[in-house]
Amino acid sequence: MDECDITKGTVHNCQIANSVKSSLDQYFKDLDGQPPHALYDMVLACIEKPLLEYTLHYAGGNQSKAAEILGLNRNTLRKKMQQYHIE
Q1: Fewer CB in a 10 Å sphere around the end CB: N or C, the chain?
Q2: In the chain, what is the greatest distance between 2 CA atoms, to the nearest angstrom?
């Protein structure tokens, strides 16, 4: 199991973090000198939607169970599902 070891605000030994870093490296290369824009929102949307979808699938569509797995309030999960058009 690949869990992130968070120590003093730094993430160590985390495949997800490494994937994000690699994707960001490629993103900045692809900009070809153009200035980045709204990077934070873009990265969150790219990660959050598949995280929610996968967790809901894992939980068999049970929103309460998915919210518990994610560490979110069920109402927060429902809001995010609406935001990303997840049924």
Answers
A1: N
A2: 45
Are 33 and 44 a contacting pair, CB within 8 Å?
Answer: no
One-letter amino acid of 51: L
Ordered by start, the domain boundaries in the chain are 1-34, 37-87
Tens-digit pLDDT profile for residues 37-64: 999 999 999 999 999 999 999 999 999 9
> What is the domain class of 37-87 according to CATH?
mainly alpha
Cβ atoms 84, 52 nearer than 8 A: yes
Bridge partners (DSSP) of residue 7 are 10
Please give the angle made by the CA atoms of 59, 76 and 1, to the nearest 5 degrees: 40
How far apart CA 73 and CA 14 sit, in angstroms, is 25
User: What are the backbone dihedrals phi and psi of residue 53, each rounded to the nearest 5 degrees, phi first?
Assistant: -60, -45
Do residues 69 and 55 lie in contact, with contact meaning Cβ atoms separated by under 8 Å?
yes
Q: Phi/psi of residue 6, each to 5°?
A: -100, 115
